[in-house]
Every structure is written in C-alpha cells, then in structure tokens.
Specification:
198 residues, two-stranded antiparallel sheet, 5 helices, 2% strand, mainly alpha, globular, 2 domains
C-alpha cells in the first residue's frame, strides 16, 4: 500500500512541477495538454516494458484507466478529509503565528548534543471549531477508510489484470509504473538543475 501511494505521489509530482515551471500561471488548456503528453508517454513506456500486443492493449488499457480514475477519486476524498482535519485541529494558543497544528518555529526533534529551542507545544483540539465540521473521530475514520478502499480497488483490478495478462506481464506492469515515476522525477530534477545553471 505504501509503495502504491509513493508511485501515485511521484507520478503526480511532475504534473505539479510542470505547472510551476515556465510561467507562474498556465492556462487550463496548457495544463491539460501537459497531462495528456505525460499520459501518452506512460502508455508508450508501459506498453513497451510489459510487452503488450495490440490484443493485450485493447483489453488491458480500459481496465488500467478505470483503476486510475477510481484511485484518483479516492485520493481526492483523502485530500479533502485531510484538509478538514487541518481545519479542525487548532493551535493550542491563538497568539502563535503558525497556521497548522504546530506553532511556527517549534521543533519536535532534539539533537544528541541537546537543543536550546523551546520544547514543542502540545496540540489540542478546539472544542468549538468554526462552522460545523465533522467530529475528529469521524474524519479519522474517513481518512483511514480511503486507504482501505484504495487497497480493495487495487486488489480487485489486480485480479482483472491477471485475466487479460500473464502473471509475468502484471509483475512487469508494477515495475514499469515505478520506473516511469522515477524517470519523471529524474527529468524534473534535471530540468531544475539546468534552469539553475542558466
């Protein structure tokens, strides 16, 4: 499950990064074109790495695209739930400049040589949050259920993949997904280094 989440995050990172690269604001059409270009690269990369025939591809890609869409929807729910948790969690004292659950500049870690910084302040739940947010228990449950749902989806589609591909091809698929994500990440780093050298 952690590996799947890492693959998804790494595959989404270049999309975010590309949106930040050339200009501060790209049009929706430009972002859509970039996503389509990356999607086309991924299809070509996976097709080659897995060794998909035209017949294999015809059966496999609709399943893969369905899974990708469903996992993305689960990810959106997870993101909204996490954002709501951040909103419900309040710093224990309103005078802190930090906006998250920890005051700004406060470290949870300590070094072996000691630390002169003030100890981290405890995080308290605001008993009267603004608006009418779901109780934190419910939010936590929703958040954890998104991981379970994603795991069930991946297991379900894994079985479907095995009906249209060989076990070796499915194994190659999972390796190819990771390799493609790593390639996108390396390409992004290379672009950033080139921009820095200019």
């Amino acid at each position: 499950m952690k590996r799947s989440l890492l693959v998804i995050l790494l595959s989404l990172m270049p999309l975010w990064a590309m949106a930040q690269d050339a200009r501060p604001h790209k049009t929706d059409e430009e972002r859509r074109a970039e996503r389509e270009a990356i999607r086309a690269q991924r299809v070509a990369f996976i097709t080659q790495e897995v060794g998909l025939t035209a017949e294999d591809a015809e059966k496999f890609w609709p399943l893969y695209n369905e899974l990708e869409q469903k996992v993305m929807e689960v990810g959106h729910v997870r993101g909204r739930t996490k954002a709501e948790m951040y909103r419900v969690l309040q710093p224990f004292h309103s005078n802190y400049p930090g906006k998250g659950s920890e005051p700004a500049g406060i470290s949870q870690g300590r070094t072996q040589a000691g630390d002169h910084r003030a100890p981290a302040q405890p995080v308290f739940l605001d008993e009267h949050p603004k608006g009418s947010p779901a109780p934190i228990d419910k939010l936590l449950e929703e958040y954890i259920l998104t991981f379970e749902k994603e795991t069930r989806l991946r297991s379900e589609y894994h079985r479907m993949f095995l009906k249209v591909l060989t076990a070796e091809q499915v194994a190659r698929l999972y390796i190819a997904e990771e390799r493609f994500s790593n390639k996108l990440f390396r390409d992004y780093i290379d672009r950033k280094l080139e921009q820095k050298d200019r």
